[in-house]
Amino acid sequence: MTVTSETAICNLALTRLGHRLITDMTENTKAAELCRLHYPLCRDAVLRAHPWNFAIKRIALMSEVATIAFDFTYRFPLPPDCLKVMRSDLDDACEVYRVEGRAIVTNATAVAIQYIARITDVTLYDAMFVDVLAARLAAEIAMPLTDTASLASSMMSVAEAKLRDARAMDAQEGTPRDMIDATGWLNARY
Q1: Which of 35, 73, 169, 188 lies in disulfide reach of 10, CB 3.0 to 4.6 Å?
Q2: 58 and 34 assigned to the same domain
Q3: Of 112, 150, 131, 142, whose CA–CA distance to 46 is shortest?
Q4: What is the pLDDT of residues 89-100, one digit of tens each?
Q5: Averaged over 72-101, what is the pLDDT?
Q6: pLDDT on residue 14
Q7: Which residue in 41, 47, 39 sits closest to 11, CA to CA?
Q8: For 116-125, how does the pLDDT look when each residue is reduced to its tens digit (9 = 90+)?
């Protein structure tokens, strides 16, 4: 099944709760209102939870003129669709940088990043991502929609299990990503 709309994903979540379908997220029903409220947050949370292949982008950042109080000289604004910086070319160069607010600060004069992007076009979503997103959405709207705490808890467990399965499957595509040792403790062993 190819998912072609946010409403379709919301309907997957609603069916998991045993609720009737909605025709559109803009309709004036409690289910549609809850979907409108929770969908964007759930989508972004599930995107941030794993480096989904379809959501990875790379970009060279442009420095902006900024006065930084201490430690760093340059500020590089992140792209508007950046949900999480996965890695930077500064990692390979052993340059220190920090993500502060919606920017990277560093003493390096150039920065390129690999990041998880906010993807809103549902036709680009992987089937397992859709499954996890629908499960997470069901977990979030279960309590306000059904007034059943045990169903909400059960749905969150389902969502977590589906995320574990999806991570394992998604990670099998391509060459494994390098582990980034942010603390240096592994290198200290040698």
Answers
A1: 35
A2: no
A3: 131
A4: 998 878 899 999
A5: 92
A6: 97
A7: 39
A8: 999 999 999 9
Residue 4's pLDDT is 82
Give the model's pLDDT for residue 94.
82
pLDDT at 176 over 70: no
- Among candidates 49, 47, 55, 15, which has minimal Cα distance to 31? 15
Identify whether residues 71 and 108 lie together within a single domain.
yes
170 pLDDT above the threshold of 60: yes
Query: Do both 13 and 96 map to the same domain?
Result: no
Q: How far apart are CA 89 and CA 85, in angstroms?
A: 11
Which CA distances in Å does 178 have to 119, 163, 181? 24, 21, 9
Phi, psi of 89 (to 5 degrees): -65, -15
Same domain membership, residue 39 and residue 133: yes
What is the rounded CA–CA span in Å between residue 159 and residue 165?
10
* Cα–Cα distance measured from residue 141 to residue 168, given in angstroms and rounded to the nearest whole number: 26
For residues 62 and 104, state if they share a domain: yes
105 lies in the same domain as 12: no
d(CA 46, CA 48): 5
